[in-house]
Amino acid sequence: MQDEQNPTNPDIKHRRIRSFVVRGGRMTEGQQKAYDANWEVYGLEVADGRISYEEVFGRTSDVVLEVGFGMGASLVEMAKNAPEKDFIGIEVHPPGVAKLMMLAAEAGINNIRVYCHDAIEVMADCLPQAQASTFQLFFPDPWHKKKHNKRRIVQPLFAQQVANVLKIGGVFHMATDWEPYAEHMMEVMEVQENYENAAGKGNYHPRPEARPLTKFEQRGERLGHGVWDLMYTKISG
Asked: What keywords appear on the UniProt entry (predicted)?
């Protein structure tokens, strides 16, 4: 992750904080075929610039954004379980994007779209401002070593970037299985003046039923590992 810079200045896009670390994005032949077959239906191009949710989905609805959806199973399940909502996933890992689109096609759902690009740039250049109802960040890289903590995506600047795309009353929902990162998330979010902790100041939120329990999380529960959900409501611009 690079040093934090002003994310709205087009002259320094190349110096923006990054939302990811690339870890081998080469796709198998099968993944490439799935990607190519489904991109026209589910893919959104950064080059097209600022989108309209109504035009993308053909209706007015609550829009849920998720950054870093991994292989997409959880996000597709959420979209399938909430047909009245529309979902946009942002993921830089092409195999994960291919898998999500394949799962969406198999499920026959049309209320999901995807960007295969850095989330920070998508948020700044492509997403409508102050319109999304929910922003999800589940199990981001915790960067365990103290010297790497500054690389964690949840920082004051990122909290503001999320606020930019959320409407008033919209929710920033985070989840992590690393308690020190949960503490870091809360430390960052509790001092943000335009957010309010939905569970009450200093409290973690019970896992909402809308967030599917992943196999990874189920295994962690059996081993006695905890998962911490944090939900913050945008209360001002």
From this structure: Methyltransferase, S-adenosyl-L-methionine, Transferase, tRNA processing
Nearest alpha-carbon partner for 67 in 218, 211, 173: 173
Residue 141 annotated as binding site: yes
The answer to whether residue 3 sits within a structural domain is: no
Instruction: Write the CATH number for 221.
Output: 3.40.50.150
Domain assignment of residue 76, given as a range: 50-234
For the stretch 170-206, pLDDT in tens is 999 999 999 999 999 999 999 999 999 999 999 999 9
Strand order in the sheet with 228-234: 112-115, 86-90, 63-67, 132-138, 166-176, 228-234, 195-197
70-80: pLDDT as tens digits: 999 999 999 99
* Coil/strand/helix, residue 172: strand
Which of helix, strand or coil describes residue 198? coil
DSSP SS3 for 157? helix
